[in-house]
């Protein structure tokens, strides 16, 4: 597998990046333990124009400042005081787009993931939902700001010819964003077990 280059993240179309991330891989190496997950579900957040984004209306805080920096770094925040949610920072400096990784298919280091979940046997809950993505891969808020070409965490693509059907729907859990909550900014691989089980799946639109 080859690491994604910085220019992959520097594009100004966060929706296209969210789609392009499907099928790519996240690799982490913490404490000599390597885990790999294939991305199966994403959500795009369009920076300062997007009411669902933490950076909406140019909101700059200690937490969101990383979003205003260079592309190709991690943005990890705590949700409900429990879940560490992993995002990919996109676009260019001062244009704080990001993609939330909502689901991964475990590929390598599954025994490590099982220990992190305190499970003996793998099931579809490992890597399903953004909190479980970070838990499976060992990612936490202490990793926010890490370049995604580092030795600890990176994203990659392989040369295998793979095909899958992509569906799109509104994002999950952003009702506070008003009409922006209806934007079709969530993308996922059809019928994949690690995709969030949600009512929106039944009305999702097929892209290809």
Task: Explain the overall architecture.
By secondary structure, the chain is an alpha+beta fold. The chain has a single domain, classed as 3-methyladenine DNA Glycosylase, Chain A, CATH 3.10.300.10. It is 13% helix and 30% strand. The protein contains four helices and ten strands. The radius of gyration is 16 Å and the shape is globular. The mean pLDDT is 95.
Parts with pLDDT < 50 across at least 5 consecutive residues: none
Domains (count): 1
The total count of strands amounts to: 10
What share of the residues lie within helices? 10-25%
Counting H and I runs of at least 4 residues, what is the number of helices?
A: 4
**Topology as H/E string?**
EHHEEEEEHHEEEE
Largest sheet: 10 strands, antiparallel
The overall pLDDT, averaged over residues, is: 95
Overall form: globular
Q: Distance between termini?
A: 25 Å
CATH architecture: Roll
Name the beta content range. Answer: 25-35%
Q: What is the CA-based Rg, rounded? A: 16 Å
Give the helix/strand class.
alpha+beta
Q: How would you briefly describe this protein structure?
A:
With 208 residues, this protein is of the alpha+beta class.
Which features does this protein show?
208 residues; alpha+beta; 3-methyladenine DNA Glycosylase, Chain A; ten-stranded antiparallel sheet; 10 strands
């Amino acid at each position: 597998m080859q690491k994604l280059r910085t220019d992959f993240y520097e594009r100004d179309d966060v929706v296209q990046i969210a789609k392009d991330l499907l099928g790519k891989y996240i690799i982490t190496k913490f404490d000599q333990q390597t885990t790999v997950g294939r991305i199966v579900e994403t959500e795009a957040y369009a920076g300062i124009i997007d009411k669902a984004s933490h950076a909406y209306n140019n909101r700059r805080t200690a937490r969101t400042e990383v979003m205003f920096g260079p592309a190709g770094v991690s943005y990890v925040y705590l949700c409900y005081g429990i879940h560490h949610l992993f995002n990919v920072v996109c676009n260019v400096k001062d244009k704080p787009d990001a993609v939330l990784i909502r689901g991964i298919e475990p590929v390598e280091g599954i025994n490590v993931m099982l220990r992190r979940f305190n499970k003996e046997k793998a099931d579809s809950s490992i890597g399903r939902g953004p909190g479980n993505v970070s838990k499976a891969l060992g990612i936490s808020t202490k990793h926010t700001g890490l370049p995604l070409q580092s030795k600890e965490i990176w994203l990659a693509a392989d040369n295998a010819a793979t095909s899958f059907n992509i569906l799109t729907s509104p994002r999950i859990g952003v009702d506070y964003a008003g009409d922006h909550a209806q934007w079709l900014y969530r993308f996922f691989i059809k019928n994949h077990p690690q995709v969030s089980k949600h009512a929106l799946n039944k009305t999702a639109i097929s892209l290809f």
